[in-house]
Structures are given as structure tokens and as C-alpha cells.
Amino acid sequence: MSAMDASPLLSLDGASVRFGDVQALQPTTLNIRAGERVLLVGANGSGKTTLLRVLHGLQAFEGKRQVARPELALRQAMVSQRPFLLSLSVWHNLMLALWLGGVARAERTERARQALGRVGLSELAQRPARVLSGGQQQRLALARAWGLHPQLLFLDEPTANLDPSAKREVEALIEAFAREGMTLVMSTHNLGQAKRLATRLLYMEAGRVLVDLPPQEFFNTALPQEAALFLKGELPWT
Amino acid sequence: MDLKRIVNHLLLSVALLVPGLAARAEAPFIVVASTTSTEQSGLFGHLLPAFTKDTGIEVRVVAVGTGQALDMARRGDADVVFVHDTVAEEKFVAEGFGLPRRAVMHNDFVLIGPKSDPAKVRGNDVAAALLKLKATGQPFVSRGDKSGTHAAELRYWKIAGVDLSTDKPAGYKACGCGMGPALNMASSMNAYVLADRGTWLAFKNRADLVVLVEGDTRLFNPYGVIVVNPAKYPQVKLELAQRFADWLVSARGQGVIAGYQIGGEPLFFPDAIR
Amino acid sequence: MRDSFALAFDLIVHADAVLLNVVLLSLRVSASSCLIGGLIGLAVGVWLAVVRFPGQRGLVALLNTLLALPSVVVGLLVYLLLSRSGPLGSWGILFTPAAMVVAQSILVMPITAALTRQLLVNAFGEGGDTLRSMGAGPMLSAALLLLHERWAVLTLLLIAFGRAISEVGAVMMVGGNIDGVTRVMTTSIALETSKGDLPLALALGLVLLLVVGLINLLITLAQGGAQQTGAQQS
User: Is the CATH number of domain B107-219 3.40.190.10?
Assistant: First the structure.
């Protein structure tokens, strides 16, 4: 994480997505820089998930997407709201992810062990992944991602389905990852979470990024009316 | 990893299965196209083990109707034909598909019907019986399958002067099926049916059916054996097939045929030895 | 009816040698066809679920039509193919168990293909994105999803096996129902019915049900066991 590295890790130029009649993402131009923690907020259907998928490379779109240094493969991973785990053990789910992610055979076992330790699931390695609790499954998803040592981590409302204590555990892990140098792009409904984690807050509505500011400015500036209303609606629950 | 174990198991299972499928190549064998009447009468169960014991040759019988058996041989799918429709057999030989026919055995056809005999056909005249069936409209099951029995049935209708294409009897039911199913149908419908005595004697589902017409000389039912012509199909196992045909008409084979009985009654009468 | 139960019991207890051979042949022919037709069906199902190409909808519709393929038609087609005067006559497998496996595999293939395709379409909906995000291409994702849904795949193969072992018409035609060579349970039942020996036919039917029932029971037990231990092994 070099402050001297001025070029963005990933950039979009006029990227847009259309599903039939619906414009899920308006033409969007956006740069993600190394070390940033970009949080996306907005109502359901505002385009947060679509933007994340376009950034990650999972979604077909019109426009341009550029990776900063293509000769060095940009390592990225994604964690979604409800993790999809195969009907295998925790350990095998992890090993499979490492294999798919191109981790060399010699390193795989050690990385898997480290990843499980990092998220506190070492004791559950032999359990079938599907019997884990929601929070444990999400931690496994994080282990899957962490094991690849990604530079860029995308998260789509990762704590939305979790009970309060699991929420805290997962958030703590995400924050720890960021401190280790991982660049984050994450969507959330939880403004408190956004405030806590973000170095940069994006407010989205109807497929468009309306506001893009660091958190202090975000909460202290006069915002466009929609954003202000949104904040008012969400604040009591942070 | 466990995946390897699973793959190994699969390969092993397939390997075990497949040789079992191909293994039949050891004993020499011939394919004989024959009729349902010879199979279902139980004759083959009695005859073939004796032949295999004498010669070491395995006989694989595909039992279908006479017409179908001859067609099968015309396609080259059999080495020997053993059926009972002399006219069709001679035609088969004349067309060049078979070597000369040899008479093996005979029995007779019988007209089967309900014990109560509502059409009053009982006697020894098959043509008269069929006329009475037409007149009374009683149900009659025809095999309708180009078998030897069906061919005979058509001959008798012709002798009786009935043209089935223009003047079908009211109760006439063609099932397009083998002797057994035809008998099953007759027994459940209490209908009349023409059968060969061999299948009838071995048939177990008689219900109310009994033999009503027999002894008419026209009911003579001869069986012949024909080796498929290797000039048409070179892969025919000529030597093995000849040995089968020879054995059937030999004293030994004829004796075995004569020895097949149900309830003390022989089903087939040897023809080759006078 | 009671005769049949008694007869079936008798046959089983005395392990009648002929019956044993017939049962074993039925199992071997059906298992082989289930394997071959099943594997081909799996491959076709995967292909249809994963690959996008013009006319795909048409192919799927064709596949669904094949589900209703009458077995007697398949029997006839295979017979004509394998006949000495047919294109594959030189293989010489007509009237052998191999021909029966060919016919049954053809019958089993559409079922496994259609079911596999549906299974995968659903599974892709659930986890396709995640696997793609992790770096798996479409084929690899399909393989992983089949692994993920392995019990459903097994059930699918059981359905295929059931279809295979209950087949009569096609195997009768291409096998010839030759005593000791291509006579299986279903053709034996057909034969005994033809001969009017209905109690024996029914007894054989009961034995067939018993054999298939046992296999299903074993699989169900294994399935339950795996779920108990939580499917620890992949």
C-alpha cells in the first residue's frame, strides 16, 4: 500500500448496465485507489450490487473498465450477503477456493490453515460448511477471500443477515483486513458501519452515484435532497 | 484424494461388467430363428441340451413368428431357420436365402374353444367349423402375425370359401401376437382359436378352453429346418449349422423329439426317419 | 395371487440357479446401461446447461420430446442398425447382452440429460456467480455444482436404473430373449405370461420388485449415513 502509487487500482469510464427496460447502472466513471475503503450506501435497487459486480468483473456492461497494471494480475475477491458454500467441509471449501484462485500447491495447505486461524474457524475445519451458523459461514467466506491475499476486496452487504454479535465479529475482521492493506469496496445499509469503516462514502440512487465524499464531509455538507432524506430515514437505526 | 478412489471404483465396476458382456465368445454357438410354438411348447428346453451334450455346440434360439423368423434370416441375423410354413419355407429357399429344406417333425393344429361350444363346431372338419363360427358370429382370435399358425388359419378360411378381406366374420379378432398371448386372450374372452397342439399341451392358463376340432388331415402341421445360405451371408456358421440340421434329422435327434411328452402325450412326431 | 407370493418365496429361498442367472444378467445389463446412458446424459445435460449457442432452445425441446420416446421404436431402430444387413452388422452384437445395453442406454440418456440440465440450471442460479467470481470457468463450475449436488445426481441415476431395469420391448427385440444368454427378468415375465403361466410370471415380477427395492434401500441407507456424518469427505 504505497501512498506514492498515484494511479488507481481499478477504474471505470462511462460504465452502464441495462436489464431489459431497466437502467440498473447509469454511465458511471469511478476510480478506486489502493488503500481506500469505499463504502456504497443507498436504498435497495439503487444499483449498489450492480456497481460492485461491474467493478469485480462479474457483470456485462457498456463502457470501459481498466485495471491499473494489467501485467501484474490484480488479485481480487468478493464476499456476498449470503455466502454460497459447497456441500463439503469447511476445509475443502477453503482449499477449493485457493485452488481456483491459483494458489500454488506447495503453499495451499499453509495458507488455508492461516486463513482459518485468521477468522477463528480452525476448530471447525472438518465440519460440513453448511451446518455452520450465519456468522461462521460469513467468516468462512472471508477466509476464502483472505486466503488469496487479494489487493482488492468487494463486499456486498456482508453483515446484513447476521445477528448483532456476528455483525460485530465480521465487521472487526473486515476492518482488520483493511488495516493489513486490503483495498475495500463495500455496500451497506448500516450508516454507522459506513461511518466507522469508510475513507470514502458513495451515495447511490436509481443507478447513479450522486455523492462521493470522505465521511466527515459527507455528514457535514449540504447534501442533495434525496441523499438528505435517505440519511434522515436511516439514521435512527445506526 | 477421495475423488481418485471414486474414479477407481467406477473403472473397476465397468471393467467387471464389460467382460461379462463380451465373454460369450468361448463356446461355439449358432443362432436359430424359430417359432414361438416350438419354444413355448417346451421342445427346445428338452431338445437343445441333448444336442449341446452331443456336439458341444451352444444353440441360441430367437423365437418369433415363422414369417418374422424367415425375415430375420433374410437379413442375415440367423444361421438356421426352423419353422412350420412349408410354402413360405420353399419360397425362402427358392429366393436363394437357404439351402434345401429338410423335414424334421410334425404335429397337428387343433381348434380350441369354450367347453360349452356355443357355435357347435365340435368334430373333425376344420373348414366346416370355421363356417359355423362365421355364421354364429362367435369370437375368434387370430394371431394375425405371419406365423406358421396364422398361415394355416388363412388356408382354412380359404378352403371354407370365406374371403377375409371383404367378408370378415363378426367375431374375428386379430391380435398380431404369439400363440401364448393369443391363447391367453381366447381364454379370457371365451373365444375360439386355432393352435398347434404342442403349444396347447404346454399352455397353463386354459380356463374353460378345450380341444373341439381335431383329426382333420388338413390340420397336418409339418416343421422343416433350413440352413441359411452362406453364398448370401458368408459369416453364417455353415459347418455348425449343418451339424445342427443333420442332428435334427438323425436317428438320435428324431428319438429325442419323439421322447418329448407332456402327460404321456408326445407333442411332435418325427418325420425324417420312416 | 397367494400362489405367486409362495412361489416367489420358494424361488428365492432355494436360490433357483436359472433365476439367479436371470437376475444377475438383468442387473449387469441395467447397471451398464445406467452407467453409459447416464454418463452420456450427464455430459449432454451439462453441455445444454452451460454452453450458449443459437438454436439451444430447439435442442432442449428436442430433448424433452425424446423423453417420450417409445421403447419399441428404439428397439426397432437399434435392431435395424445392428442387423447383419444393417450398417453396424459387422459388430456382430445383435442378440447379445451388448445390444441390450445399447438399446437401454439410448432410452436412459434423454432422462438423465433433461434432469441434469434442470438440476444445473437451478444450481447455477444459486452458486454460479460465486464460482465464477472465484475463478471457475463454466465447465469447471458445472463439475463443481454436480459435486455439490451429488445426492441429487445419485437419485437421477437411480431413476435411470429404474427405467433400464423395467424395459421389456426394446431388449426383447434386440436381445431375442435367448435362454441363458439374453433372457432377463422382464423378458422372462413376458415369456411366462405368453405361456399362460401367470402365477410364475407374477412371482418373477415380485422378485424383480424385491431386487430393485433392495438396491433402493441400500442407497437410502447410505444417503442417510452420509448426512449423519455430515458428508465430511468430498
Answer: yes
